[in-house]
Amino acid sequence: MHNEHSDAHFQLRIDNGEHIEAKDYMPDAYRKHLIRQMSQHAHSEVIGMQPEGNWITRAPSLRAKQILLAKIQDEGGHGLYLYSAAETLGVSRVEFIEQLQSGKAKYSSIFNYPSLNWADIGAIGWLVDGAAIVNQVSLQRTSYGPYSRAMVRICKEESFHQRQGYEIMAKMMKGTKDQQAMAQDAMNRWWWPSLMMFGPHDTDSPNSSNAVKWKIKRETNDELRQKFIDKTIPQAELIGLTVPDKNFKLDEKTGHYKISEINWDEFHRVIEGHGPCNKQRLDHHIKYHQEGEWVREAALAYKQKHLKKELQTV
Amino acid sequence: MNTQEATYKYALRLGDSALVLGHRLSELCSKGPILEEDLALTNISLDMIGRTQALLKYACELEMQGKTEDDLAYRRSENHYYNYLMTEQPNGDFAHTIARQLFISVFEYLFYTELEKSKDATLAAIATKTLKEIKYHMQHSVEWTIRLGDGTAESHKRMQTAINDLWMYTGEFFEMDHLDMFLLHQHIAVDTHPLKAKWQDYIKTALTEATLIMPIDSYMQTGSKKGIHSENLGHILSEMQYLQRAYPDAKW
Amino acid sequence: MATDTQLDLWEVFIQSKAGLPYMHAGSVHASDEKMALQNARDIYTRRGEGTSIWVMPSKYIVASNPDDNDMLFDPSNDKIYRHPTFYVMPEGAKNI
Ligand SMILES: [Fe+2]
Ligand SMILES: [Fe+2]
Q: Which listed site, A147, B19, B75, C68, has its alpha carbon 20 to 30 Å from B105?
């Protein structure tokens, strides 16, 4: 007879392509890895609301404002789905938020860059969501059931995010000289950070091997990054944007683009907290979280009062 | 002034209130007291922007100058906006956001219920669609008013302060000027005078359940029907119109 | 300072069309049932996914223990006589 609480049996289930559910046996390291990855993912969705939120009140048309608002709302929803999925592992949202605000938990460094002109909204949708989607499509098949189900829902909603961003870029490239300059400026600033979103090279990625073995991660950082590069460069060229990399070229044999080396110093610097907006993003989160505290307390107090009243009348 | 011109201005007024309140609510994105409420407020904002589009589009049709709803939303100067002063009041703390929404939603519920009977088919159709949204806004703001009013000592105090602070902007809802009277005679506009008692009843019921005190009417602020606003509107517009004004030839 | 609260956890079930079963959609945080329903509406039906919503406090969900799976679910595997294909019908029989 097999022991259902053994790591060997667990790995067998993973290898058979089974989903793991909240109450199933899982090795401690698997649980820890999931909690870290899912909460980090949830925090990224929530913090990601800020750079785009920066332009809501300046959106140049009613349609643009509507689209942007609906898009950011989706991201908030994604954060919520992911917190819920992570809560099945026995950690509460209160704890997740504490970890975010204390700096113990990370979020995607991309959101530590500022959104400086309206075309940044295009670039974020097209490049940042585009990169995220490549990752998320892959995660729909992740081995943890609640995570996988959240990702399926998220991917469905993501489908318009990248398109709305690319639409903005295309429109601006067809527009006035000023608009074209804004679009290129946004491209220049967001291209490299969006490539960094996939994380370090596989050879430098300490968590990757377990994650792949447990099928939490289904493809490696470099594989996913390459997919993104290959589909994005032709999209840039189609609308007349210049990829800010003098050395990129298409390898005719493999069909893949080769690019210059990513600036890993910058990557590590931003992760360590020295990006343009790290402090600003966390301060914003903490400020509004604290401002909401009396509201949450009031809601609970109200419920408790009325529970008591109900009990008295029974 | 003929009927068409008057109806243009009437649609513009209604559209402007939706535009400015939708804008105010959109400022709250990523600032809600809990993630769930962030999404809820965004939904209300999106309803408002949708209503703005319908009303301003109709205004363009009536104006017959070949303008778009964006031209109207983004290219007028401050004294040509006709939104209720209430809609441009700052979000303040969550109690102010909820009090503003409560006052407006209850009024809009009564108002659009009447506008549904308008002889103007377009306005009536917009009213039907928007009423469904308003009922939800009303439920949302009534429930929060009760929770905050009857929650903790602090929330009670904040909610009462918000109710008191915003009360002076509620008088405008029930004003009728020449334009309203002109269109009322043609069964296009809503007679808001009789709505006042009903509105007070609704508000009183909600405030009583929330253990809050209904303010006594004193001086009521006025001006929006003439395009005279509080200082808030200028700041809203300087943000909202920034790109349209800075790059007048650009299409977005 | 009081310890933070994110309100209580509720499970959300959505019926996508009248007549179809309610499916688990996810969860929301809320303090009372009215808020739970509204939050579920605002979060899980933004794209016309629903015609009806159920919410219930997560703490009332009772789940079977995966360790009991053998005992709970295997015994029904060999009860093939519960399925219509188990029965042999005479050649030519119709509408049965
Ligand atoms: Fe997302
Ligand atoms: Fe997205």
A: B75
